[in-house]
Amino acid sequence: MRARDLLEDFPTVGLDTPVLEAAGLLAEQDLPGLIVVDADGAPYTILPGTQVLRLAVPRYCQDDPALARVVDEAHADRFMRVLDDRTVREALPRERRELPVADPDATVLELAALMARTHSPVVAVVAEGRLLGAVTLQALMDRLVST
């Protein structure tokens, strides 16, 4: 089985897309992450949903989870509001990581190795500089455990 056999249409966002819009796509479509494209439409990086949370959750709560418990429920339910004027660019990690991109002929082992190495739940599939879609961790795992 090859990447082209597991390929799915997949939504993309740009670097200047509002991060709340990206979060909405993640939630509405039950996605593990999004493909971020540059101005030319080429894959730039993968935005995992956890990075959106990392931008929204106050640093003090990330550093000391016990502090999250002292925030009252009404405020805790609204912590995503800090993202109102933020962009996808701001949600990305400061250091650029290896871009999880594969060609349509990549095997499931190649895809699995790429996901494991890059810690990405999504691999962009590209041919001749054009984004064809993506292979998700879910699709890959479904295939691997059914064989």
Automatic annotation (TrEMBL):
Coiled coil, from the record: none
Source organism of this protein record: Nonomuraea mangrovi
Name under which the protein is recorded: CBS domain-containing protein
UniProtKB keywords: CBS domain
Pfam families reported in the protein's UniProt record: CBS
CBS domain boundaries: 95-147
